[in-house]
């Protein structure tokens, strides 16, 4: 029940705008390129959310479209011209993290960028965003702005940085407002020490209802086999996020202080929401000390708290299997 974060992308891989799913979101270049989630801006600014669109690259991997730099208007026009059919499902993955975790964020971006796309093509649109509270340090503000300008996968919420003091609530309740004009089917909360296999999750979600869903690693309490979902990563359907967003009792009863995953379960249980519950155990799990409990059918593996554990994860899932031999590097991963 901890919280961290991560995400996806790199411009060193071939990006083809035309392969991006429908909309590239405009990043307000210039400003703290980030989406300071300002409620009063309303839906007219929703589209100024990050550009971090996961695209299918030629190689079939995920990419986050580069956010800044280029001619955004042209990029959007081009994207519209090749608008694809509506995907079967749309998923927002929010990786909760903190500004200073630059190195981890880079690893997590790559972890998403190098994953295969779900098949059949266009079955899912999956957007990965790194989620922060307000960035107060001026150095971080500049460096995070540079990331946002380039990767476009940053969301900054109006909260003070914290793990168990309301950040998840701010995330779940801001998303319905931020993306009101173009809603997702599902909203996921995950951390930067979690490796999510997007294809495996999409395969699970395809057959699930689109409403009243709460899916993750179910935690049993008493007679209830799934009282709440572990914070390593859980998914709620859009209606559930909207319900959290509109529920003033959660704030009135100060019910945002404490272990975020347990609290989300508590809100939903009290409100009788998220009744379509699914636990993906044992396909979601913590990597053990010896790092020998990986499974081929993994949906989520968690506790990747250092580079060594990320390296083991990439090795197990053959992430560099496609690396072409070259005289330019001699790596023996
Ligand atoms: C952020 O939240 C604070 C306290 O909840 C509020 O007073 C302020 O107006 C908010 N700022 C923005 C930009 O929405
Ligand atoms: C809510 O919780 C915070 C932190 O635990 C505490 O400081 C505050 O007094 C509480 N407010 C109410 C109304 O209970
Ligand atoms: C990685 O590649 C090896 C060799 O091709 C294969 O046996 C193994 O199943 C792959 N692992 C996963 C998790 O796909």
Find the structural class using helix and strand composition.
alpha/beta
Helix content: 25-40%
* Whole-number total of structural domains: 1
Q: Please identify which CATH superfamily we are dealing with.
A: Spore Coat Polysaccharide Biosynthesis Protein SpsA, Chain A
Alpha-carbon Rg, integer: 19 Å
- What ligand species are in this complex? 2-acetamido-2-deoxy-beta-D-glucopyranose
Shape: globular
Question: Do you know the CATH topology?
Answer: Spore Coat Polysaccharide Biosynthesis Protein SpsA, Chain A
Main sheet makeup: 8 strands, mixed
Q: How does CATH name the architecture? A: Alpha-Beta Complex
Q: Which residues form runs of ≥5 with pLDDT under 50?
A: 1-81
Average pLDDT over all residues: 80
Sheet with the most strands: spatial strand order:
1-6-5-4-7-12-9-13
Give me the count of strands.
Answer: 15
Strand content: 15-25%
Number of helices: 9
User: Which CATH class applies here?
Assistant: Alpha Beta
The arrangement of helices and strands along the chain is: EEEHEHEHEHEEHEEEEHHHEEEH
Tell me the distance between the termini.
Answer: 31 Å
Keywords: Glycosyltransferase, Golgi apparatus, Manganese, Membrane, Signal-anchor, Transferase, Transmembrane, Transmembrane helix
EC number: 2.4.1.-
Transmembrane segments: 15-38
Enzyme class: transferase
């Amino acid at each position: 029940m901890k919280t961290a974060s991560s995400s996806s992308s790199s411009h060193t891989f071939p990006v083809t705008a035309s392969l991006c799913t429908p909309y590239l979101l405009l990043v307000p270049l210039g400003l703290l390129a980030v989406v300071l989630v300002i409620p009063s801006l309303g839906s007219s600014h929703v589209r100024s959310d990050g550009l971090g669109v996961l695209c299918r690259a030629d190689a079939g991997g995920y990419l986050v479209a580069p956010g800044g730099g280029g001619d955004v208007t042209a990029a959007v026009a081009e994207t519209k011209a090749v608008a694809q059919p509506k995907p079967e499902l749309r998923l927002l993955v929010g990786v909760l993290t903190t500004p200073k975790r630059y190195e981890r964020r880079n690893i997590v971006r790559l972890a998403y960028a190098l994953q295969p796309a779900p098949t059949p093509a266009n079955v899912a649109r999956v957007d990965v965003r790194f989620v922060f509270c307000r960035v107060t340090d001026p150095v971080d503000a500049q460096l995070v702005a540079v990331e946002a300008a380039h990767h476009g996968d940053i969301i900054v919420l109006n909260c003070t940085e914290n793990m168990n003091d309301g950040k998840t609530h701010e995330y779940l309740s801001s998303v319905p407002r931020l993306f009101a004009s173009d809603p997702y089917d599902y909203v996921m909360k995950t951390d930067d020490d979690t490796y999510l296999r997007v294809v495996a999750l999409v395969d699970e979600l395809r057959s699930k209802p689109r409403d009243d869903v709460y899916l993750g690693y179910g935690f049993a309490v008493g007679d209830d086999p799934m009282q709440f979902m572990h914070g390593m990563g859980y998914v709620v359907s859009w209606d559930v996020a909207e319900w959290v967003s509109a529920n003033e009792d959660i704030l009135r009863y100060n019910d945002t202080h404490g272990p975020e995953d347990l609290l989300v379960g508590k809100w939903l249980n009290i409100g009788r929401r998220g009744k379509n519950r699914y636990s993906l155990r044992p396909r979601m799990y913590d990597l053990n000390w010896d790092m020998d409990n990986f499974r081929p059918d993994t949906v989520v593996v968690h506790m990747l708290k250092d580079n060594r554990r990320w390296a083991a994860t990439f090795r197990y899932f053959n992430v560099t299997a496609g690396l072409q031999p070259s005289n330019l590097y001699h790596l023996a991963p």
